[in-house]
Amino acid sequence: MIVAERYHDISCGHRVVGHEGKCRFLHGHNYRIHFTVAAHELDEIGRVVDFSVIKSALCEWLEENFDHKFLIWEKDELLTQLQEIAGDSLVIVPFNPTAEHLARYLVETVGPEQLKAYPVQLISCKIEETAKCSATYSL
Ligand SMILES: [Zn+2]
């Protein structure tokens, strides 16, 4: 299989509800998010898709929706209090915002919507919270 990959860096806050250690606190990461897309066949000039499509459809989605914002689970007990002080900088998500859940959300929800006009599919996403720690979700 031939795939095309591109990564994008964003800064984002979150907390992990129920975490046994310090990740339960409000904190953030300089995330590096890797997208892998695949197609049934290469286009007439030999590409899975132009890399600019990954940028415009997926990297720019991250810029508009997650960059410099705070991800919070809709069931987080701090949601109401944080909404009062953080307002538009909060992004309410339907999952506890671990790297694993973020990767799955991008592949299952964001990818199909953002790439629907193109003959490619987001098949995998790797989320690096640090240079040492990452999670990957693949179809
Ligand atoms: Zn974290």
Automatic annotation (TrEMBL):
Its cofactor is Zn(2+). Its EC number is 4.1.2.50. It is an enzyme of class 4 (lyase). It catalyses: 7,8-dihydroneopterin 3'-triphosphate + H2O = 6-carboxy-5,6,7,8-tetrahydropterin + triphosphate + acetaldehyde + 2 H(+). Transmembrane segments: none annotated. Pathway: Purine metabolism; 7-cyano-7-deazaguanine biosynthesis. Pfam families: PTPS (PF01242). Keywords: Lyase, Metal-binding, Zinc. InterPro entries: 6-PTP_synth/QueD (IPR007115), 6-PTP_synth/QueD_sf (IPR038418). PANTHER family: 6-PYRUVOYL TETRAHYDROBIOPTERIN SYNTHASE, PYRUVOYL TETRAHYDROBIOPTERIN SYNTHASE. Belongs to the PTPS family. QueD subfamily. This is 6-carboxy-5,6,7,8-tetrahydropterin synthase. It comes from Sphingobacterium oryzagri.
